[in-house]
Amino acid sequence: MLVYTLRRIAMAIPILFLVSVVVFFLATLMPGDALSGKIDPLNSDPEYIAEMRAELGLDDPVHVQYLRWAGGILQGDFGDSFVHKMPVSELIFSKLLNTVVLALSAMLITYSVSFLMGRYAGRHPYTIGDYTVQVFNYIMLAMPSFVAALLLIYLFAFQLNWLPASGSISAGVETGTFAYYISKIEHAILPAVCLGLLPIASYTQFLRNDSIENGRKDFVRTARAKGTAEKTIYNKHILRNSIIPIVTLLGFDIAGILGGSVIIETIFTYPGIGQLFIDSISNRDFSVVMGIALLLAAFTLIGNLIADLLYAAVDPRIRLH
C-alpha cells in the first residue's frame, strides 16, 4: 500500500502541473486584471498606470508570467493579493480554517443521517417508514442548494430566530473565549446543515438498496440456515457489506464538499475560501483565484487517493499494487 501511495503521489505532480497551466491561462483570458480592476482610468495618470503594469510584470508575455508564477509556487510563494495587500498563502490559510470546520461538520451530518435512515429503510423495506424515507430523499434530490439555504435562513434565522444567518462570529466577541467558540459553532450550523443535507438522499438510497440486495445473497441464506440470529446476520453480514460503497465516498466528499462550499458560503456570507474565491474573481485578484483553484485541485487528488485506500481497507478482496 505504501508503494501504491507513493506512486499515486508521483502521478499527481504532472496533473497539478497541467491544472496550473489551464488555470493560469484561463485567468489571463478574463477581461482586465487586478490593476485595472482597482484603478479608475478616468481619474489616474496613464503614465502611472503603465509604470505600475510594467513594475508588476503585467506587460510581460503570458508564458513569462506563468513561469514566474510557477517558479514562485515551487518555492512556496503563491504571490501577493492585489486587493488584500498580503501574501496569497497567508490569506487562503486565514480563510481555510472556517471552510474546514464547515466541511467536517457537513460530512458528520451527511454520514450520520444517511447511515441511520439507510439502515432503517434497508432493514424494513417496503414499509411506511421506508416509503417516508424515500419521499424525503426525492424532495432533497429535487431541491437546489440555494433554495435549501434560503429556506433554512427564513425558518431558523428569521422566523424562529434560533441561529444567525450570516458571518462566522458575532460582533464584540473576544477571540479565544468560550463565547467565541460557541459563536463559531452557532454560525456554522446553518451552512453545515445545508451543505450536509444535499448528499444524504443519494447515500441513503445506496445503503438501502445494497442492504436489500445483500439480504438476498447466498451467504445470508446460509447464515440463516445455520440458525444465526437475525440481528447478527444483519449487522455482521448485510450491513458490513452494504456500507463499503458509502465509506469509499468519504474520500470524494473531501473535494466535493470543499467545492460545493463556494455557493453555500456566498449565500450565508460565511468567510471561507469559497466566498474568497467568488470575491477574488469579481475583484480580478487573479493570484488568489489561481491559488484557490490549485488548492482545490490538490484536495481533489488527495480525496481520490483516500477513497482508493479506504476501499482497500474496508474490502479485503481489493489489493492495491
Summarize the SSE layout with pairings.
Elements: H1 2-29, H2 34-38, H3 46-56, H4 62-74, E1 80-81, E2 86-87, H5 88-123, H6 128-142, H7 145-159, H8 178-197, H9 200-214, H10 218-225, H11 230-242, H12 244-267, H13 273-282, H14 286-314
Antiparallel strand pairs: 1-2
Helix pairs in contact: 1-14, 5-6, 5-8, 5-9, 5-12, 5-14, 6-9, 7-8, 8-12, 9-11, 10-11, 12-13, 12-14, 13-14
Task: Give an overview of the whole structure.
The chain is an all-alpha fold and 321 residues long. The protein has two domains: 87 residues, no CATH class; 226 residues, MetI-like (MetI-like fold, Orthogonal Bundle), CATH 1.10.3720. 75% of the residues lie in helices and 1% in strands. The chain is built from 14 helices and two strands; from the N terminus they run ααααββαααααααααα. A two-stranded antiparallel sheet has the order 1-2. The mean pLDDT is 81.
Please give a quick description of this structure.
By secondary structure, the protein is an all-alpha fold.
